[in-house]
Protein-L-isoaspartate O-methyltransferase (Geoglobus acetivorans), 216 residues
Amino acid sequence: MDEYSEKRKRLVERLKKEIGLSEKVARAMLEVPRHLFVPPEVRGEAYNDYPLLIGHGQTISAPHMVAIMCELLDLEEGDKVLEVGAGSGYHAAVVSRIVGENGAVISVERIPELADMARKTLEALGYTNVKVVVGDGSIGYEPEAPYDKIYVTASAPRIPAKLLMQLKNGGRMVIPVGDFIQHLYVVDRDEYGQIKTRNWGAVRFVPLVGENGFRE
């Protein structure tokens, strides 16, 4: 076992104890090499449980937050998932391992250079069920809608109506909302299309920029 594999294993074991990681999320996080999704100069910090800068004013989320969002989404094999904010591609990679080859992750990233970086890393690792597109994630991605699950990796001023419209009946969205004070919301659309939200708790994310987000 190499140095990174050992660090990754220790991180996942700690998350199992601290947040009660499920087996399917633990397996995905063990499989995905986070160190390959960060710039070379911070690779040694890849398995520390905090966000890291990835360029263009953006960060890769702390591993515990990636894990929590995966757990809250209640991802299933075969789900079609919309990710708003690809960043370096790490979060999408973890989700892709949970939904499996019969599932799909459509990831929208507004910064072309980050989208390109994410796409190249995912392709190099052979993750064929992730599609990275450049665009305004705050309005979703209509060509692939509707989605079983949606998650947003940046904080919105409010829950975007266009994302709700792209969520299937019976689907779920996880999204941080707020400016200086942010909370993570779990949004469920029931089989009749009715929306129910619950506040999971306080979080800290970069702002969601776009038509239904904050101004740049």
